């Protein structure tokens, strides 16, 4: 999959990688190093977005949302639709879910990674 991200977005992604939230750091500990059998990338520039986590092999995007997303629901829905049209499945988790229900979040991601015909969400 060819990524057409511009240089500004690439710089933004690098900054975000260095400044991940606590929830993103915790989730990254479970995703990195192919622990689920596939490679995930973090803070990945795609089109005009920076995706929190993505598995390009499975076309799976994982977004970790904080409180600011309550007020940005329309934007998030638009973003999800754009990603769906590009062939991705999008999983969204709240920061507090990742921090307090880490095992359940990891199990849901594992299920999606191991589905033969993933549903779009």
UniProtKB/TrEMBL annotation:
Superkingdom assignment:
Bacteria
Q: Does the keyword ATP-binding apply?
A: no
Q: Cross-referenced Pfam families, in alphabetical order?
A: DUF559
Question: What protein name does the entry list?
Answer: Endonuclease domain-containing protein
Instruction: Enumerate the PANTHER family for this protein.
Output: BLL0828 PROTEIN
Entry coiled-coil feature ranges:
none
Question: CDD domains, alphabetically?
Answer: Endonuclease_DUF559
Q: Which residues form the DUF559 domain?
A: 10-113
């Amino acid at each position: 999959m060819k990524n057409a991200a511009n240089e500004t977005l690439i710089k933004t992604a690098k900054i975000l990688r260095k400044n991940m939230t606590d929830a993103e750091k915790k989730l990254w500990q479970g995703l990195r190093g192919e622990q689920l059998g596939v490679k995930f990338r973090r803070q990945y520039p795609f089109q005009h977005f920076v995706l929190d986590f993505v598995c390009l092999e499975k076309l799976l995007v994982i977004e970790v949302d904080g409180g600011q997303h309550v007020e940005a629901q329309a934007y998030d829905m638009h973003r999800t639709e754009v990603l769906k049209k590009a062939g991705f499945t999008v999983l969204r988790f709240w920061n507090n879910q990742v921090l307090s229900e880490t095992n359940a979040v990891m199990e849901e991601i594992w299920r999606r990674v191991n589905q033969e015909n993933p549903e779009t969400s």
